[in-house]
Amino acid sequence: MLAKVGCLQSMLKATPWAVSTALVLAWTDPHRRYKLLLLLFGGAGVALVLKVLHIAMRGLCKNPLEGAYLLGSLLYAFAKTVLQFVTRGFKPIFPQWTLRFELFRIFIRVGMELYGERVLGDESYASIVREQSEWFGTFWGRKACRKAGKRYEPVKINGLEHIWLRSQTPRKPGTKRLVVLYAHGGGFAIMSPRLYIHFSNALCSFIEKELVRQLGPEAAGKVHVEIFLANYRKVPKHSYPTQPQDIVEVYEHLLYHENLDPSQVVLAGDSAGAGLIMSAMLRERRTKPHFLPLCAALLCPYVDLTGDEQPSPYCILTPECCNAVLKAYHPLIEDQTKWGDASSIHCDLRNLPPVFVQTGDLDSIHQHAVRLVAKAKADGVSNWEYDVHPLMSHVFPIFPAWFLPHADLAIEKMANFIVRQLRPTLKTSSGFNPSAMAA
């Protein structure tokens, strides 16, 4: 027995020398050296891919087994989508779509079908997705800002980070500011203002082009466009009415501290963010009607807590996600009398500023927009505009043009609406004294 132990110890001592000798011999042979390098770099590449996948999926998956299952599901869905693309003669499923958009939709859809409820209902996962959106949005947004001649400026208000998007050229004296306060979507739980830096560059650019088209170069030069990407506390850690109150507070902060007149501010948002914009306007109408903004723009708004959405197979939203949003957002979802302005289609919509409602008919919450516009008409409102895009799914306008060219058309229509509302106000004063108005 002692002899065996001694033999094993001798082998262990000799192993490092044996390995070193084998590596030296392999390195001196060009053919073996090539195989050794291939093995080393191949192993490092596989390890890097696995690490990236782990980082990317940790906002969805509990463990590597779930990650492997998600990866397998994605590969199958991708292969199926590409095969269908080829059999259609290399054409996307709809003329307005691209293969890139199809694959991205599949990526989100599969992830939401498997683990969407967890992401929207568990803070530990939702916070990871928010961090990922911040990182990606910063990287992507910097490139967009350089291309558009803009800059983004983080600012802390009420303990939250918000983002200013401004021109790199200083504002000229005597120009009138137009500020678009934008509330991002994400089921009230995920995403961040930084993810929308790229989109806000596109929106700002289209507004500037519309100013030139509608007013002429000289008059357009007297308007300085800025985007304010507003943040708010997220579910499931914070539930209604925290989110709409956060939007109200940051809006009033802009009026007071930026010396902005309400006629210089547009409130806008997509999905859950659009719902918060509606809630914020209803609150201002009730308490400070003189604070109502120039107008509002709602992209694919989430404004109905009824919970009877018709699922669309072409949308990134799944029924499970919609149910998770309801449960996480409103603590008294079972009692309709407690919904309040969280479900704005059940509110009186009179005496609000002009509202632009945009939607796609393949959106799982398309009926939210339809019902909201119908409710406004039933209330006798005539200054709203409804813009529906056939064969478009949820929040399609926020995608870049190289990803989904049709998105530019949607943003252009939104910009056209905003400038048309601005034109009658250009002869008014750009200063604002909230205290004086309140008095």
TrEMBL record:
<feature type="transmembrane region" description="Helical">
    <location>
        <begin position="178"/>
        <end position="197"/>
    </location>
</feature>
<feature type="transmembrane region" description="Helical">
    <location>
        <begin position="36"/>
        <end position="56"/>
    </location>
</feature>
<dbReference type="InterPro" id="IPR029058">
    <property type="entry name" value="AB_hydrolase_fold"/>
</dbReference>
<protein>
    <submittedName>
        <fullName>Monoterpene epsilon-lactone hydrolase</fullName>
    </submittedName>
</protein>
<keyword id="KW-0378">Hydrolase</keyword>
<feature type="transmembrane region" description="Helical">
    <location>
        <begin position="68"/>
        <end position="86"/>
    </location>
</feature>
<feature type="domain" description="Alpha/beta hydrolase fold-3">
    <location>
        <begin position="180"/>
        <end position="396"/>
    </location>
</feature>
<dbReference type="InterPro" id="IPR013094">
    <property type="entry name" value="AB_hydrolase_3"/>
</dbReference>
<keyword id="KW-0812">Transmembrane</keyword>
<keyword id="KW-0472">Membrane</keyword>
<keyword id="KW-1133">Transmembrane helix</keyword>
<dbReference type="InterPro" id="IPR050300">
    <property type="entry name" value="GDXG_lipolytic_enzyme"/>
</dbReference>
<dbReference type="Pfam" id="PF07859">
    <property type="entry name" value="Abhydrolase_3"/>
</dbReference>
<dbReference type="GO" id="GO:0016787">
    <property type="term" value="F:hydrolase activity"/>
</dbReference>
